[in-house]
Structure to design on (578 residues):
């Protein structure tokens, strides 16, 4: 028997139903792997071994029936941004280091109802702000493929945990690339869903007009399974259109014959490493052989996406972060403070790391009187132009394909003191986020140095099935 | 655009963010780079373009005005649990903070 921690959801579910192994054994193998590797990789920041094994034993005792979810008894890691009742949820921020939420996020409730075995919480950039998981109060997550390199971010822990077989699947969040980029850098699958596809209630808000929630997995099929469980309307999240949840696994197995795949020339242009382009193009050629029609398209607004994002997102971050005052929850100010305003200054000065401080200040600045029109409103107008770009492209093609990241995993510390260089890492993931589009990151190959290179498949809103259908053929 | 140390300190004050003079110095350089970069947007003609702040076209989503349990399972989150999340002293179901106004 292979190590059970290396299996897909589909394989675990089949094995559990056939009685080949127990849920407890799967969880045990995950914890064994974590003990061997987590000191190096630092994917998990809190482990829930005792409750996970107890839960697995309960599930084993009850057995499985035909109507049970395929996720029943399957070990999962959750990014430490999902509220988990009774389990620390820190957003990897010094200000929330000891915070234990009194309730579960909606998606966590759904997974609990499906029978999940949560084995722990995964590392991330503080409040999901970063592209390398270096901005975590628990230290950096290292790339399992090369421990001198970053795992990407902000969901670096969730990506590394799946890529390194510490769990079967995981959840992360993607605001400007935080699922796709770490998936690509670690060599695993990650899905950014349409804005409003999955409930965000109970998941710490970063930039509310951008934030989405999605899965990491070892196969496209696994992502389809998880998405089917977590997608769909939730009355606690008012930003969700009433869109039906299709059977995503039914999108698979159809091949790509007759599909039109667009290659945006900007995604293969300046600033993108040649090796990355070559690896992605080799996958595109394979899709062409399978019967897809390859069409060249242009998304001329691509080069403005980072500037739009780094105005709009910090504006929303600065508003969302106002609630962190250390009063109702979170770390209180250390030492003596003289009055309430002082209490705010000290609490927030101690509670936020550098990147959060930068984003809060950028956001406060672009929203302040006299600058609102020049920055914020201008950015929101260019955002409209980005959306129009995609709308025009989708008149000609069914999906778009390009690299996820301009380059493979970079060195730890390499971009840490140069925020602008770090922001550029999301150049190719931000545009789809700006338009609220789904995008699937798939492993496409490796660099000469053996570092994973990923591609992304972007589809129109609520066409996750199309992303998955094409992704299966990559 | 140059973001001076004084501007950084002013913005930090607006955001109720305690920063040291050393931090203000560092952020001044870093934020100047970021704002220089943003000037790229001036290349785009947006004179006839509307702003987008919501991407799926939802507007004014409403719910019936009724009391429902917060959690889907129906378990209410208890008041004591919520108050228990605070590190500050709790008195008569209220969290004690420092004075907001000066005693006269």
């Amino acid at each position: 028997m292979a190590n059970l921690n290396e299996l897909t959801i589909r394989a675990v579910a089949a094995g559990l139903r056939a009685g080949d192994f127990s849920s407890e054994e799967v969880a045990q193998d995950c914890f064994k792997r974590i003990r061997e590797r987590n000191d190096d990789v630092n994917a998990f920041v809190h482990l829930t071994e005792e409750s996970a094994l107890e839960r697995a034993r309960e599930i084993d005792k009850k057995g499985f029936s035909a109507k049970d979810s395929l996720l029943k008894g399957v070990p999962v890691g959750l990014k430490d941004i999902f509220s988990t009742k009774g389990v620390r949820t820190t957003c990897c921020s010094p200000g929330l280091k000891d915070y234990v939420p009194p309730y579960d996020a909606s998606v966590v409730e759904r997974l609990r109802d499906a029978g999940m075995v949560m084995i722990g919480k995964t590392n991330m950039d503080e409040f999901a702000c970063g592209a390398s998981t270096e901005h975590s109060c628990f230290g950096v997550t290292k790339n399992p493929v090369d421990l001198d390199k970053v795992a990407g971010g902000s969901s670096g822990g969730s990506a590394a945990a799946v890529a390194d077989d510490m769990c079967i699947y995981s959840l992360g969040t993607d605001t400007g690339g935080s699922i796709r980029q770490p998936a690509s850098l670690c060599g695993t699958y990650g899905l950014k869903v349409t804005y409003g596809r999955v409930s965000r209630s109970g998941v710490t808000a970063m930039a509310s007009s951008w934030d989405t929630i999605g899965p990491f997995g070892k196969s496209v099929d696994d992502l389809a399974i998880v998405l089917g469980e977590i997608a769909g309307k939730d009355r606690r999240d008012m930003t969700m259109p009433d869109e039906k949840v299709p059977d995503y696994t039914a999108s698979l197995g159809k091949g790509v014959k007759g599909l039109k795949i667009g290659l945006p020339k900007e995604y293969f242009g300046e600033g993108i490493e040649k090796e990355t382009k070559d690896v992605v193009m080799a996958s595109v050629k394979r899709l062409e052989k399978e019967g897809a029609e390859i069409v060249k398209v242009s998304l001329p607004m691509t080069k403005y996406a980072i500037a739009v994002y780094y105005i709009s997102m910090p504006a929303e971050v600065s508003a969302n972060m106002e609630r962190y005052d250390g009063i109702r929850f979170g770390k209180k100010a250390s030492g003596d403070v003289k009055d309430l305003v002082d209490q705010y200054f000290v609490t927030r000065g101690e509670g936020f790391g550098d990147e959060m401080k930068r984003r809060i200040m950028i956001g406060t600045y672009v929203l302040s009187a006299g600058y609102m029109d020049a920055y914020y409103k201008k950015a929101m107008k260019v955002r409209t132009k980005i959306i129009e770009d995609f709308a025009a492209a989708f008149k000609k093609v069914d999906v778009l394909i390009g690299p996820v990241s301009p380059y493979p995993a970079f060195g730890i510390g390499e971009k840490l003191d140069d925020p602008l260089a770090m922001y550029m890492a999301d150049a190719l993931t931000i545009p789809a986020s700006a338009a609220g589009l789904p995008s699937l990151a798939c492993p496409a190959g490796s660099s000469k140095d053996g570092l994973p290179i990923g591609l992304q498949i972007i589809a129109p809103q609520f066409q996750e099935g199309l992303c998955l259908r094409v992704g299966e053929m990559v | 655009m140059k973001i001076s140390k004084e501007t950084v300190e002013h913005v930090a004050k607006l955001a109720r963010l305690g920063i040291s003079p050393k931090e203000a110095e560092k952020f001044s350089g870093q934020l100047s780079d970021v704002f220089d970069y943003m000037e790229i947007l001036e290349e785009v003609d947006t004179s006839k373009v509307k702003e987008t702040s919501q991407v799926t076209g939802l507007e004014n989503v409403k719910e019936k005005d009724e009391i429902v349990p917060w959690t889907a399972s129906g378990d209410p989150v208890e008041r004591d649990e919520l108050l228990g999340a605070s590190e500050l002293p709790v008195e008569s179901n209220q969290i004690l903070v420092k004075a907001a106004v000066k005693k006269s």
